[in-house]
Amino acid sequence: MLTLAGCRGHQYAQVLRPDQKDMVGSHEAGAETFNPLIDTAVAQLLGRQAGGFQSASYTPGQPTPAGPPAICFVGVENKSAEAIGDFKDQIYQQIDTRIVQSGTFRAVSRRFVDAGLQQTRLRPDSLFVPANMRTFVESLEQMGQPFDYLLYATITSGTTEANQNYQRDYLLTLELVNIHNGQYDKESATVRKGYHRSALGAVKSYNPFKN
Question: Can you tell me whether residue 165 is helix, strand or coil?
């Protein structure tokens, strides 16, 4: 019994300091992949559009109405080769927080978004149908949450095999739609990650693009 107990493995954890790099997932994407995707895509999309958006009540020749335009972020769709688990909600919250912190746009609370989808019995991908969009907009207006833009996020991946190694390219795409005139904008960010299978079948990740 003493011999068996001595051979048993153990697990420990540590709190990473802000100046420490994220751990790299050995089998699939993790914080080291999703955080840079979010930082890049959101900053580029909002930064590019910061000076060009007006709220729904804006009329040319009239003073700009008080308050920033509102963005309704309807969700994150995962179309990658991996299940992203609890990262899906975290990605939503990170993007939503960056919208709020931008100071240029106002974000509709996810609680209202979910309530609107439940009340109208609509899926996020069905909101492109004009009748469905009008129904959803009216639902949120009744809750006191009018908005100007719909935001969609999609995660995809592409895999390149090379004998025992493989590279996976992760792509986060943000699509922004003006609900009043259909004007459309899009931004993407990519992170490439390499995985290596050892002779014993174990998998570990590595970055083949650094020396």
Answer: strand
